[in-house]
Specification:
- The protein is of the alpha+beta class and 284 residues long.
- It has two domains: 93 residues, Phosphorylase Kinase, domain 1, CATH 3.30.200; 178 residues, Aminoglycoside phosphotransferase (APH), C-terminal lobe (Aminoglycoside 3'-phosphotransferase, Chain: A, domain 2).
Length: 284
């Protein structure tokens, strides 16, 4: 199995990542999950998860990102995918074997508001000070300090002409969002990144976008997945409004990531279509 832009097979990289693990884990049945935009994940039954980067852009950052996961405090009350071995590199690609985080994502639109609030507080309560050297800058995946110029120069011109003014307005609103109290932010706190069991959040995956930001960053992700109407039960109207400003740029941010990561044109074209559709349905 090969992925576009990859010069070495997933099987080769996985074998390198699990070389030091016990034989029973190396021989476990494998399941490949191809849904993430930055990684392919290969599950070894209930024993391990191997994260394999999709491109050089992501490969260069994997070592620091896994160091962050291993540094998350154990007392937050949620399981995280800590390393089972070192990050390995094969022909410019990278992979790491991590602990298997069991359970399953919460179905879209579900999730008790009290539990969502507990999840949000658990993450925002992490002290970012000792982690600061290995945290990303906000919006690092779609340009970081240059995110605005990426949006204006690269993303907006690719959006359908009829939606460009709406897209630009959404970007401008985000760029003018006033700073507020800074806390630890996961960056993508929802969907398949949070594991649930019996109505409670039990584990968090994919800490790649973690940064120091304000609560509206993770609040926006929770609202998109679990239902926007629930946010009023866990946050003030002011915070919900700020979260809405962030949400309005999510599809544009995703497109920015694919562009600067130099992903194949079919992926970029598909993201353009999703962005146009979202703008038409939500901002027009």
């Amino acid at each position: 199995m090969h992925t576009a832009g990859r010069s070495v097979s997933i099987e080769t990289i996985v074998e390198a990542a699990i070389a030091g693990l016990p034989l029973r884990i190396r021989r476990a049945q494998r399941t490949t999950i191809n849904e993430g935009s930055a990684h392919v994940v290969v599950l070894l039954e209930d024993h391990a998860a191997i994260r394999v980067t999709r491109d050089l852009f992501t490969a260069h950052k994997l070592r620091r990102r896994q160091q962050l996961v291993d540094s998350i405090p154990s007392d937050i009350g949620l399981v995280v995918p800590r390393s089972l071995g070192p990050v390995v590199e094969v022909e410019g690609q990278a992979a790491v074997a991590t602990e298997f985080v069991s359970s399953a994502p919460c179905p879209a639109g579900e999730g008790d508001p009290e539990e969502l609030q507990r999840l949000l507080e658990a993450v925002s309560s992490i002290d970012p000070a000792p982690l600061q050297p290995i945290l990303n800058e906000p919006l690092s995946f779609c340009g970081g300090a240059n995110w605005y110029s990426v949006q204006i120069e690269e993303v907006i011109p690719r959006i359908d002409q009829q939606f460009r003014n709406l897209a630009r307005k959404a970007i401008e609103e985000l760029s003018h969002l006033e700073p507020e109290e800074q806390v630890f932010s996961h960056g993508d706190l929802g969907g398949y990144n949070v594991m649930w069991q019996r109505g409670r959040a039990t584990g968090i995956l994919d800490w790649d976008l973690s940064s120091i930001s304000d609560r509206s960053t993770d609040l926006a992700s929770l609202g998109v997945w679990h239902g926007w109407q629930k946010l009023s039960k866990i946050a003030s109207a002011h915070q919900v409004n700020r979260a809405g400003i962030r949400r309005n740029t999510f599809r544009l941010q995703q497109l920015g990531f694919l562009i600067i990561a130099q992903r194949p044109e079919p992926e970029i074209s598909a993201a353009i279509g999703r962005a146009n559709k979202w703008i038409a349905e939500n901002l027009a």
